[in-house]
Structures
1.
Amino acid sequence: MHLARVLGRVVATAKYPGLEGVPLLWIQPLDENGAAAGDALVATSAISSGPGDVVSWIDGREAALTCPVHFVPVDAAILGFVEQAARLGEVVARQES
Amino acid sequence: MLIGKVVGSVVATRKDAKLGGAKLLVVQVFDQQNKPKDQYVVAIDAVEAGVGDMVLYATGSSARQTDRTEGKPCDAVIMAVVDSWDLGGKNVYEKWA
Amino acid sequence: MFLADVIGSVVTPVAVPFLAGRVQLLVRPLTGPGKPQGRVRIALDLVGAGPGDRVLVMDEGNSGRQLCEVADAPVKTVVVAVVDSLDIDGATVYSHTDRPELETLPAKGGALR
């Protein structure tokens, strides 16, 4: 599981069956300082989130297990909304929900 | 998942028997700013995409989680046709523009 | 499995039901001798580890689900052990009892805010 920031929303009508209603979001992976780490990618989301949110996400086949139907071709999924991430006692991310 | 544009198709007569009937498309990867990257993948199509379409593809073992790719030698599958996306609320790509 | 240092924690009040009430830690993967390698990630804590501990992390879906004893759990990265000591080529490279001080905090904190 990793940290990321939500960049934007993706709209797709023709999707693999089972993914209807599942949100798709551009996310930018982050390192422990909140700096961008690696290239942006698209992930499904198990929660409602929007641009600017810091989230946790999972990659690989396990990502599909966050979708309503588990047998779907999904390799990245947002798991949760990060309210606070602390690094050695120092808060690196905090969001007011 | 990553976003790319379908730029062509692959025809191969001599291939693994399990790939029989698979529609192989060449996808050029695009970044979140809608700029093409010098990166291409060949993906099996699961959503009736065509040349010129902007698509989402999943990689790794997730790519085998469709009816068309289950149990087949496949590590990339097209799982959605993208209509549009925005970054921070600003529209970046619009299929029907 | 790989070695890692626990460098912090992550709180996700809104998340998939599976994560409710579970402790998530920020871990920095290490080489055997203790050099950072790869991207910092979030791991589920099963052993009561905390910041400053060196731990053993499992990063594989099937194993993660078995350890959590939840079928279809969306989990991959799990802290499975706290390291007491680590020997490489006969030399002790890490000992929990005389572990080094936590690194000094960076001045640029708050970048995510």
2.
Amino acid sequence: MPKLVIDEREIEVPEGTKVIEAAEQLGIMIPRFCYHPALGSVGACRVCAVKFLEGPFKGVQMSCMIDAKDDMVVSTTDEEAVEFRKYVIEWLMLHHPHDCPVCDEGGHCLLQDMTVSGGHGVRRYLGLKRTYRDQYLGPLVQHEMNRCIHCYRCTRFYQEFAGYFDLGVMQIANHTYFGRFKDGILESPFTGNLSDICPTGVYTDKPSRFFGRRWDYQRSPSLCINCSLGCHITASARYREVVRQEARYSEAVNGYFICDRGRHGFHYAKSETRPGKALVDGREVTTEEGIRAAREKLAELMSRIESDGVACLGSARSSLENQAMLKQLCQKMGWQDPSYFVDESLAKKVKTAVTRLEPELTVSLRDLEGSDAIIVVGADPINEAPMLALAMRQAQRKGGKIVVLDPRPISLPCDYTHLPVKLDEINLYLGALIKAAVDPEAITDAEKDVARFYREAPMLEIFVDSLQKKASSLAQELRASQRVVIVCGTQVVRETTVVLAGDCVSLLRAAKKQAGLFYLLPQANAFGASLLTNKEFSFLNTLEGMENGSIKGLILVENDPFYSFHHRQRLDLAIEKLDLLIVLDYLESPAVRKAHVFLPTSTLYETGGIYINQEGRAQAATKTYLGGISIAQISGGNHPPRIYGSEIPGGEARAAFQFLDQIGDGGSDEDETASRQNPLRWLSANLPALAKIPPFGELTEAGMLINSSDEGTGQFSLDWKEEKDKGDMTGDLLEVILTDLTFGTEELSSFSPPLRKLERKPCLFMQVNDAAKMGLSSEDRVRIKLDEGDVEVDVRLEENMAPGVVILPRHRLLEWQKVKRLPKFVRFEEIEKVSD
Amino acid sequence: MLSQQERDEIEAEFPHYEKKRGVSVEAMKIIQRHRGWVSTQAIEEISEFLEMTPDELDGVATFYNLIFRKPVGKHVILVCDSVSCWIMGYEEVRSHLLSRLGIQFGQTTGDGRFTLLSVPCLGACDQAPAMMVNDKLYGNLDPAKIDEILEAHA
């Protein structure tokens, strides 16, 4: 390891460390524009010049381009280097418009900082400046090319790092232009990062323009809850509303970047439709009256029914505190345990995932970037958890091999091999690929059950002819790989697939590979929800209870089954039969409107909370602002009301755990901080996996990895084929797979006005050959017959998907909740063309 | 649409390169030979043929000053403004061309006959001052010789 001296201080760094990085480790921030730790060095901007006094290089050199070496003596403050940097800044600023007062980057602009600190305080150039025409880049990013200093960070991120090629460099020299071939919406779902990494105001966050300077904002470390990855975010609020979110660096999870769904998915918290007042039978009441009504109505109900006549449904989007408090309440009141998942099969799959994640198998999102083979099973990264796709791209750029086993038309921003197979057949193909990837010699001393699993795994020959060649060349490459990660989704796959993914990792490890396991879960805190889920109580049981009259009261906590349950009519009827429906939520929903008592809960921005990501990492989001109705909404664009008072206007919302606490103990009005310790203490006392959970506020940046694995559960199950019961249906069938899109299906982000502009029109994806059988062509409109009615939708033909399936997104604009039972199959004739 | 001949000529270049996109520059030169310049539509057509995005191809196109992304005149004049030509009388050549054609660098004459462009070097220092008209090099220029050359290009 080279040892060098920078500004008279010695440091030892690993071989290959650049001088600029070595200096940073000493706390010396050498100026930089083009250098970015995630993007590497290109030596384009020349502003990181330092003077090398001793060693293999001499004189003024770029610190981002030179590896630290033994005997180097470097000065960042040498007069010659300082003067050099000053001139560099001056010529970078030559054409800059000096429009800081009207620029949205002003206040958090690297160029401002470097210009001032570099000593270029007075402009000497008086000539004409070069100007550019700006482009429309879509609803998320504002373009202002005149401010550009040509550091190339944008295209290096957009093309090299993220793998999209509709934004790039045009022209040459002084005319160099960063933009698109033509005006238009950027295609990548990672565009917001352009605003983060641009060192000046060429790309700024469009939805938050003209709202404030960074120093005006209440900024706090927060988490993204728009999928299960748990990316780190900095939330900014002003005037009682969240205004902007930026990526926050995380060593283990998201690195420097986030996706656009996460960045702009916060608008639900300030939605005009957000219910902010307690309601009793549809009438607005004070919060205290609401709590009292809930208690009284519950008491009245419980006086005349059995205690298991009250059921509770928690949620996988709630914080751990809320989830735990709900369970605590149920136990205190003698009700049956709550369920947290509307979809029973999903609950089972998540449970499997949570129990299979042994610490030595678990890989973080950043670990994934270092793997040399990734096998994706039943997951659609770009649509389900976009940042996963970005991590996979980094693995692939380093030479990693990516294989996807999924029936859907998967598209990834990297090189990958897609084997489009049906859900029923995924297990077979996964087993065959893994078997072929294992060197038989390597497992001669393996334990008996591993050996049997290996022996009974299917051979590669099971691949259909069209995939045979692909599969065998893949197997070769997999055999050569050392760090294999199996990424397994939980949304669309069969229950056995989730088990098998874990078994396959165990086999690979027995074969002495460093195999890892990476599950995708359905929502931000599905892990926590699953820890609290008692296997015996599922929402389907609850529903049956409601139907047969044994359940008379239902409490929904931050869960809207009308959004996610596949059979709306059944749900409607069951809810009608209830004597008491209590809803706690921060989203507007049919459930809120039907509630006898509604209590408005706070979002994570107003309360913070602990969320456990799909890897089992418990992480904390801190409070961003105190809550209340935004000034923009309360004043309707005019001066805010001239009323004096100590209350926060519209600040009735409380944390769900507070409400639940109060419902349970008679409304002793503890404050939030005190109330929060309650569920956390309960968790550490009652859940062994969470025994060591620290008090809120003491979770570190890296979070805490929760180990809830249960060795020996369902291992080596040998379920090679899980054929689903198709009832009395025979012949050629199509499975209707309900699925997610990047924008338009996820519940929270579907409230975001800028993201709504990016939603694709809902459509039905069909395999070209299936469509040909039915005489359908692209852009045809079809009516697909579901159990409780039809759905009319455009057809989109895809080549790279499995035959025998159709893909229907759970789009917010589509009434897809007409399915009696999942998985759902239709006959060819149940999809018919709509003549126009 | 790319004509059959254009496609054939581009395809003939494929064996010389590892990837299709490697043919970008050659492909645009082929199109320019046939059409005089490379339009926005041509960028879309070529990029589709080479399996790259139009953004990527236009990045290449706009990098090179001899790929014309705007229509040019019937004859393109490239005048060397490099140091040898400058020593040998470039300024007289330039002012004579500007006044005879009545246009500035980067412009095309009203009758569409000539487009005037500057280039940094033609590799013809031994014949400085020099210029090119279309594919032909002319050296040892003086006003009379320039007039003669312009006359010859109807």
